[in-house]
């Protein structure tokens, strides 16, 4: 236990303390800037940073998320301050924290994730535009107006009346922020906001420029208890809920995003919401801004190497120590420099990456409407407008059914129905189906994710009518069997077996092809039938799969970079990509009878396997060579019989000589070649021997000893469809060893 505690403290000192210092350097300037944008005392931003670090960091559900004043809430706060005053705004923050606490206790955090990200991103982009327009006036030496539209209209006049020193400080700050990312890595260890404010402060002091200085006294010396807001209590309740929900949603979405940036424990969203609630109650009571999880500081925390919540807590401690002991340094910062920092942050909040993401899902209208409405109407109104449009688009998708028709070469009409089949889409569905001529042979693919009773009745009735008029309908369901299950209660026509209904790529042809197999090449012979299935399969690939995998293959076309050389048997029942869950470009595969690897210099000479090994290890640079055998291997049955079962196949008999070492090892270790399980034991031993044969090649053995190459043995039990690990004959640190009777899925 002492060792565990000691190791934990050492990890904190090594990783979390340095990360906390980085986040502290980022947090101080951002907190001051957000307080300024919120129309609150600058000290309120510092208080929120301290509370967000210590309280939310200690009680929250995310190990590495950093909480503090958030730019996305500044628009709400500035409106509340203008309407109710600062002390009443603090009470609203406190009450909003209580609401968050209750929601967290009742496990309501997941509901916040139901908000469309397009609405959130559109809202943040609008807040960024509003902040940038408002603070740009201060950079230019003037004062911001009440609304974004007013700020935009007043901007030309503000530009015409430039205030020299103040503009110079703002331009200098933005220049440093823009150029900082291009500097050497050692220089960029200092956060850009801190560097920009420091350069602006030093320059203004050195040249004696006439600038406005930051006043940190308000908020620390003038603190008083929060008071209840005066006015319509309906509006006060709405304000409390707005702060609670916006801060909660931003925190939870940030937490989910940060989870994808580190490999530690995933966040407990309900606990995170509870911690945020307590933090907002504390910051409201102390006169601070509302607190939320913020992506900039959280990302900086992860990138700095934080491992536990101690980094977040310590950053809050450093902010407190700095404010109490070195607060006088903050008064050296020009107010115009803080405004320039906010302009830069506001512009960055309009993230083009978010636009590309929502464009891929057809949600750009939601993003744009939310952003424009927030700018023109206000935050609450804009968010409601975005949510309403998102709901309308979701409803529209439920009504939108795509019906594609094309005629195959054999005269059959191929129809694909895509989308969600609900009663809302029945009019379009029936219109399209009625255009199909009577008596036509129809292949109908249902590429749907849902089908309700109204849609089933419409489709089923059309099918019965079409078949009554002399046509035929053959239905394949590409996902779940909505139609087959609905029709199973009272069907009046032959249906496929459940195993044959879905068109799954991994099913054998005999289990997934239609009853009437197409025969375009040679319908009379068995060989012709197989060729016909291959041709039909290729057409099916081009029609369904090729469009989905084309981006992957376009990337792979430039260069192959497999990580594994996979040597396995030519047996038709072994599908490497299926049993390893691998995809295109992962495996460099060699298949032969018996998954044999001829020893170096052995007879009969075979260079095909050797060439693959050399190319994989010396050109492609694979990290692993896997030999995969299987149960009931016909090649091993031939080896076990001493070549008798190879019959009059001279080429096979010569090839099976490469399995003699496997047989010798089997006889040495097992002895009895006549017991019922001898064949499968030999199949396993053969995998071990082929791993040993690989080491007869000097380059392979050198890479194994250097730890650059790993050998892995697999055994596929066909009857149980399980993959087992097979230990090598001799174990080295670079060779995996497992109990050969344990399946991979049970490790």
Automatic annotation (TrEMBL):
Membrane topology qualifier: Multi-pass membrane protein
Keywords: Lyase, Membrane, Transmembrane, Transmembrane helix, Zinc
One Pfam assignment: Sulfate_transp
Reaction catalysis annotation: hydrogencarbonate + H(+) = CO2 + H2O
UniProt entry tagged with the keyword Transferase: no
TM annotation in the entry: 17-35, 42-64, 84-106, 118-140, 160-180, 192-209, 233-258, 317-347, 367-395
Enzyme class (EC, first level): lyase
Highest taxon, organism lineage: Bacteria
Domain SLC26A/SulP transporter: 13-363
UniProt xrefs under PANTHER family: SULFATE TRANSPORTER
Function of the molecule: Catalyzes the reversible hydration of carbon dioxide to form bicarbonate.
Name of the protein described by the UniProt record: carbonic anhydrase
Lineage: Bacteria, Bacillati, Actinomycetota, Actinomycetes, Streptosporangiales
């Amino acid at each position: 236990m002492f060792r565990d505690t000691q190791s934990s403290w050492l990890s904190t000192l090594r990783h979390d303390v340095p990360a906390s210092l980085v986040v502290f350097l980022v947090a101080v300037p951002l907190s001051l800037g957000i307080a300024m944008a919120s129309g609150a005392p600058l000290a309120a931003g510092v208080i929120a940073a301290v509370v967000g670090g210590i309280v939310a960091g200690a009680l929250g559900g995310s190990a590495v998320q950093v909480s503090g004043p958030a730019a996305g809430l500044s628009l709400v706060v500035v409106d509340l301050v203008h309407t109710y005053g600062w002390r009443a705004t603090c009470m609203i923050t406190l009450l909003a924290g209580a609401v968050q606490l209750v929601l967290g206790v009742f496990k309501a955090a997941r509901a916040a994730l139901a908000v469309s990200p397009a609405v959130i991103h559109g809202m943040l982009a609008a807040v960024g535009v509003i902040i940038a327009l408002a603070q740009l006036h201060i950079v230019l030496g003037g004062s911001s107006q009440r609304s974004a539209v007013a700020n935009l209209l007043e901007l030309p006049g503000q530009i015409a009346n430039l205030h020299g020193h103040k503009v110079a400080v703002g331009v200098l700050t933005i220049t440093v922020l823009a150029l900082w990312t291009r500097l050497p890595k050692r220089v960029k260890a200092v956060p850009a906001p801190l560097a920009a404010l420091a350069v602006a402060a030093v320059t203004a002091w050195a040249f004696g420029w006439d600038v406005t200085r930051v006043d940190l006294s308000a908020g620390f010396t003038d603190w008083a208890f929060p008071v209840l807001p005066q006015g319509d209590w309906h509006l006060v309740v709405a304000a409390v809920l707005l702060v609670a929900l916006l801060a909660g949603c931003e925190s939870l979405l940030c937490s989910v995003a940060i989870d994808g940036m580190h490999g530690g424990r995933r966040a407990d969203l309900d606990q995170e919401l509870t911690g945020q609630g307590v933090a907002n109650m504390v910051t409201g009571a102390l006169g601070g801004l509302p607190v939320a999880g913020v992506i900039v500081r959280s990302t900086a925390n992860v990138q700095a190497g934080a491992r536990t919540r101690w980094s977040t807590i310590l950053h809050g401690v450093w902010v407190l120590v700095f404010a109490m002991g070195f607060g006088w340094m903050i008064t050296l910062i020009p107010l115009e420099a803080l405004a320039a920092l906010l302009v830069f942050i506001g512009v960055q909040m309009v993230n083009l990456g978010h636009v590309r993401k929502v464009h891929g899902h057809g949600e750009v209208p939601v993003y744009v409407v939310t952003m424009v409405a927030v700018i023109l109407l206000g935050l609450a109104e804009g968010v409601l407008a975005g949510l309403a449009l998102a709901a309308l688009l979701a409803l529209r998708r439920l009504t939108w059914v795509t019906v594609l028709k094309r005629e195959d070469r054999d005269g059959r009409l191929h129809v694909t129905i895509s989308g969600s089949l609900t009663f809302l889409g029945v009019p379009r569905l029936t219109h399209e189906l009625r255009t199909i001529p009577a008596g036509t042979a129809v292949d109908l693919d249902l590429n749907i994710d849902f089908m309700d009773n109204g849609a089933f009745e419409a489709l089923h009735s059309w099918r019965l009518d079409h078949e009554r008029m002399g046509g035929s309908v053959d239905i394949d369901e590409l996902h779940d069997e909505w139609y087959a299950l609905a029709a199973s209660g009272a069907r009046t026509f032959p249906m496929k077996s459940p195993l044959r209904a879905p068109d799954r790529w991994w099913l054998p042809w005999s289990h997934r092809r239609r009853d009437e197999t197409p025969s375009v090449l040679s319908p009379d012979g068995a060989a012709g039938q197989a060729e016909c299935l291959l041709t039909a399969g290729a057409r099916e690939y081009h029609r369904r799969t090729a469009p989905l995998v084309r981006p992957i293959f376009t990337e792979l076309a430039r260069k192959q970079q497999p990580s594994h050389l996979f040597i396995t048997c030519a047996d038709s029942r072994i599908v490497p990509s299926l049993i390893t869950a691998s995809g295109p470009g992962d495996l460099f595969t060699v298949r032969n009878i018996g998954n044999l690897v001829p020893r170096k210099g052995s007879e009969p000479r075979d260079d095909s396997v050797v060439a693959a090994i050399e190319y994989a290890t010396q050109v492609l640079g694979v990290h692993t060579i896997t030999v995969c055998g299987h149960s009931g291997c016909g090649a091993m049955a031939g080896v076990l019989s001493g070549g008798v079962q190879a019959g009059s196949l001279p080429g096979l008999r010569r090839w099976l000589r490469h399995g003699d070492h496997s047989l010798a090892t089997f006889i040495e270790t097992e002895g009895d070649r006549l017991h019922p399980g001898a064949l499968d034991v030999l199949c396993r031993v053969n995998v071990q021997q082929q791993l040993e044969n690989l080491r007869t090649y000097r380059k392979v053995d050198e890479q194994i000893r250097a730890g650059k190459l790993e050998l892995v043995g697999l055994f596929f039990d066909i009857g149980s469809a399980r993959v087992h690990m097979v230990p090598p004959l001799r174990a080295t640190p670079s060779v995996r060893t497992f109990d050969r009777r344990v399946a991979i899925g049970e490790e």
